[in-house]
Design brief:
The protein has about 725 residues and is α/β, with parallel strands linked by helices. The chain has four domains: about 55 residues, 2-Layer Sandwich (Phosphorylase Kinase, domain 1); about 170 residues, 3-Layer(aba) Sandwich (Rossmann fold), CATH 3.40.50; about 220 residues, Dimethylsulfoxide Reductase, domain 2, CATH 3.40.228.10; about 130 residues, Beta Barrel (Barwin-like endoglucanases), CATH 2.40.40.20. It starts with 10 loop residues before the first strand and ends with a strand. A hairpin with an 8-residue loop joins strand 1 and strand 2. The chain is built from 26 helices and 29 strands. Helix 4 packs parallel to helix 18. The structure holds ligand MGD (2 copies), iron/sulfur cluster and molybdenum atom (MO). The site of one ligand MGD has 38 residues, from helix 6 and helix 13. Iron/sulfur cluster binds next to helix 1.
């Protein structure tokens, strides 16, 4: 090229659905060739209307992160080295089937992490691989997250994915417990620009009431904030139920013919008077009565609970009572209340044909006898299954988009367990705290290198929408559905050179059968494209993938509409307000009423705008500035314990200890300490330069693997007893 030659830079743009959190924002990526020049909110997106958060804005930084894995790694003589894809699959083929033949299927555990839900490849092709492995040792991040909501929905409505969401855009009263959507951007409630939508409630003259031990960013914009003692939401919610009955405020509206179990709920609520729960919850009886009266009086109201209510000792009872309140105020399945989305594809409760009622506890874990829920066991017991010898002992682990070493309880014990495995595979894009234990790491494309359709999250959206976005850039690594099919072939015994096309045909055949359509209608499409097309065709709107391809900013399918009774699949065909499986745990809660209120400090978690669980701390734009991994504590506790802002503290629990900087703030309730999760990057053998320099501490060294929600096996991550003292 001559010096006078001018390079003409052609900038292009591509629409991308952000897969990082549950909000499904439409973004516009500006490309300078294969470089990402910028990312901004897509103003034309039918759902997010241009909204973007700092994480979405860093998709370019993620895409170009030099630490991202772009080739498989295999452990040779103790060291992870880059190899070809053939070599990596050869190692899996040599080791995994032999291990399964010798020790059985249950000897292989699987852990599927959060991003596996936000990734069409893993969401659609993970299940085929999991089924081929056929292990009872199946774990996911749900048991450190939302499983109680699935449990309660399964019994109330007949399917664990029949989850009502607050009709944010039309409600006039939102009672929000243990959620911080201003920071999290919403969870079990797909609602891009949660802040704008919350602001809308107040602009309509409505009211937002937040129940949270911390004056969170969401509490700051609310009308009322009740700083509850951690772990006591079920008591508060039962007291609200109690008041509704006692003051004759129950109004079922049109729900009456669809409900059973009302009288049982009434009698169960009897002991939980506002006065009886006041000291345990830390909320005045009169405040509780006012909350109930205002909820009942609101023209349209929704009760909504999230992480703070699910990851606690009574997580399932709290999740159940949230919907009991939606029913008792006549707000279930009603505009402006809590409604059931009708997703365009893949939603279990919108498929044709009869559905079977759901049940949990079909099998139990080997060591601790913990019940299965939705086909999975509590991740709190994964280490037990690896460390405890005997028939069925776990000897191999496959992680798919998961970082359990930072995200699951008693992380110290899990570390010890992983070090003892015979074989481990990680499908992961980073060499991090978990994947460093693997023998084989198989990376996948970045979010810009793969097509996207949000199968899971449109089932929880506050508006019915559908959006397919193609990959913005080519990928140097295989799409993960191909990797998963390779692994499926290997464990199914057909070897690493089985035809991917025939494996894919099998998966598509099964998807077509479930969607009630003929597989041939998808023409010559393959992979997720074909599956999504089949699901759309079998879905309630008669859409095809071609329709979505023609609408790059998404298709708006309208506001949520009432779905009772068709949405139900309970044995009675009704909303079963008092199912035995849930009611059986009420005596445990009654027991709490008689106990003296403990003075011990308890630990809770928090989320941060620039953080995405554990895995985006390697991006400079998201971590620069002050250290955000601090222990927040109230000034009264700080002075009593001799802790100073900016000083250091040792925090201890039954499970472990961490040393962490102190942040004194009156935003937090006295008696409570808050440390965010996802940090603790200062371990050897990772490849994450930026994260290592901004390490923070792993709060899950403190989370106790023996403290679980009794029904769902979900770990108590909010309300962990701790002691804290200054480090000098
Ligand atoms: N104490 C405490 N603990 C918590 C929580 C809490 O509030 N407090 N929150 C819990 C919750 S809600 C959740 S969801 C869990 C999350 O728990 P996990 O899902 O175990 O953890 P993540 O941090 O989401 O890690 C995701 C992993 O997937 C990898 N990854 C990202 N994208 C891709 C991809 O496209 N393909 C592949 N193959 N890999 C990818 C990342 O590198 C990372 O290793 O943490 C839980 N843990
Ligand atoms: N920026 C950012 N966004 C995220 C994530 C992230 O890591 N960063 N993670 C994503 C994931 S995986 C999820 S699951 C969602 C979670 O979404 P949310 O549940 O909205 O987020 P959290 O910040 O965990 O909110 C939990 C709130 O519960 C409060 N709390 C703690 N204990 C109790 C209690 O006992 N009772 C009550 N009533 N409140 C309590 C905490 O103080 C906190 O404000 O966020 C998603 N979005
Ligand atoms: S709110 Fe969630 S989906 Fe939207 S840009 Fe941020 S991370 Fe992405
Ligand atoms: Mo989560």
């Amino acid at each position: 090229m001559s010096p006078s030659c001018v390079t003409v830079v052609v900038m292009t743009t591509a629409p991308v659905t952000c897969p990082l959190c549950e909000a499904t924002c439409g973004l516009e990526v500006t490309l300078d060739g294969d470089r990402v020049a910028g990312v901004r909110g897509d103003a034309a997106d039918v759902f997010s209307h241009g909204f973007i958060c700092p994480k979405g804005a860093s998709l370019g930084a993620l895409h170009h992160d030099p630490d991202l894995l772009r080739a498989p790694l295999v452990r040779r003589d103790g060291v992870l080295v880059e190899v070809s894809w053939d070599e990596a699959f050869a190692v899996v083929d040599e080791r995994l089937p032999a291990l399964m033949a010798e020790h059985g299927r249950d000897a292989v555990a699987i852990y599927a992490g959060n991003p596996s839900v936000h990734n069409a490849s893993t969401a659609l092709y993970g299940p085929a691989f999991f089924k081929a492995v056929g292990t009872k040792n199946f774990y996911t991040a749900s048991t450190v997250d939302q499983l109680p909501k699935h449990f309660s929905s399964g019994y109330l409505f007949g399917h664990p994915l029949t989850i009502p969401v607050p009709d944010l855009d039309r409600t006039e009263h939102l009672l929000l417990l243990g959620a911080n959507p201003i920071v999290s951007n919403g969870s079990l409630m797909t609602a891009p620009d949660a802040r704008g939508r919350l602001r809308g409630i107040r602009e309509r003259g409505g009211k937002i009431v937040v129940v949270d031990p911390k004056r969170s960013r969401t509490a700051e914009i609310a009308d009322d904030h009740h700083a509850i003692r951690p772990g006591t939401d079920a008591l508060l919610l039962f007291a609200l139920v109690n008041v509704l009955f006692a003051e004759d405020l129950v109004t079922l509206r049109g729900l009456a013919p669809h409900i059973t179990g009302l009288d049982t709920v009434r009698s169960l609520a009897t002991p939980f008077t506002p006065a009886a729960v006041a000291s345990a919850t830390g909320l005045a009886a009169e405040e509780i009565r006012r909350m109930a009266r205002e909820l009942a009086a609101a023209p349209r109201a929704a009760v909504y609970g999230r992480m703070g209510t699910t990851t606690q000792s009574f997580g399932t009872l709290a999740s159940w009572l949230v919907d009991v309140l939606n029913v008792l105020t006549g707000n279930l399945d009603r505009e402006g209340g809590a409604m059931f989305p009708l997703a365009a594809a893949g939603q279990a409760n919108s498929r044709r044909g009869k559905r079977r009622p759901w049940t949990a506890g079909r099998w139990r874990s080997r060591v601790r006898g913990l019940p299965e829920v939705m086909g999975e066991l509590p991740v709190a017991t994964l280490a037990d299954e690896i460390l405890t010898p005997g028939p069925g002992q776990v000897r191999a682990l496959v992680t798919v988009c998961g970082n359990p070493c930072l995200s699951t309880p008693n992380a110290g014990r899990l570390e010890e367990a992983l070090a003892q495995l015979d074989f481990m595979i990680s499908l992961d894009v980073y060499l991090n705290e978990t994947s460093r234990h693997a023998d084989v790491i198989l990376p996948g494309p970045t979010p810009l290198e793969r097509p996207h359709y949000d199968l899971a999250l449109y089932q929880l959206a506050v508006r019915n929408v559908a959006n397919w976005t193609p990959a913005a850039l080519p990928t140097p690594v295989p799409q993960e559905w191909r990797t998963l099919l390779r692994l499926t072939g290997i464990v199914a015994g057909t070897g690493r050179s089985a035809s991917l096309a025939s494996l894919d045909d099998m998966v598509a055949g099964e998807a077509a059968r479930r969607a009630g359509v003929d597989v041939s209608v998808a023409g010559d499409r393959t992979g997720p494209e074909r599956l999504v097309d089949l699901m759309l065709r079998g879905g309630p709107y008669d859409l095809t993938l071609a329709d979505l391809e023609a609408a790059p900013h998404g298709v708006d399918l309208g506001a949520l509409t009432p779905r009772l009774p068709d949405v139900l699949s309970t044995p009675s065909g009704l909303v079963e307000l008092a199912p035995d499986a849930i009611v059986s745990d009420v005596p445990r809660l009654v027991g709490v009423l008689g106990e003296p209120v403990s003075e011990q400090l308890v630990l809770i978690g928090r989320r941060q705008l620039g953080s995405n669980n554990s895995w985006m701390h390697n991006l400079e734009p998201l971590v620069r500035g002050q250290n955000r991994c601090t222990a927040q504590i109230h000034p009264a506790d700080a002075s009593r314990l001799g802790l100073v802002d900016g000083g250091r503290a040792m925090v201890r629990s039954r499970a472990g200890k961490v040393e962490v900087p102190v942040e004194v703030t009156d935003a937090i309730r006295p008696g409570v300490v808050s440390i965010p999760h996802g940090w603790g990057h200062d371990v050897d053998g990772t490849r994450a330069t930026v994260a290592t320099a901004h390490a923070g501490v792993n709060t899950n060294l403190l989370a106790d693997d023996t403290l679980l929600d009794a029904l769902s096996g979900t770990t108590v991550l909010n309300g962990i007893p701790v002691e804290i003292e200054p480090v000098r």
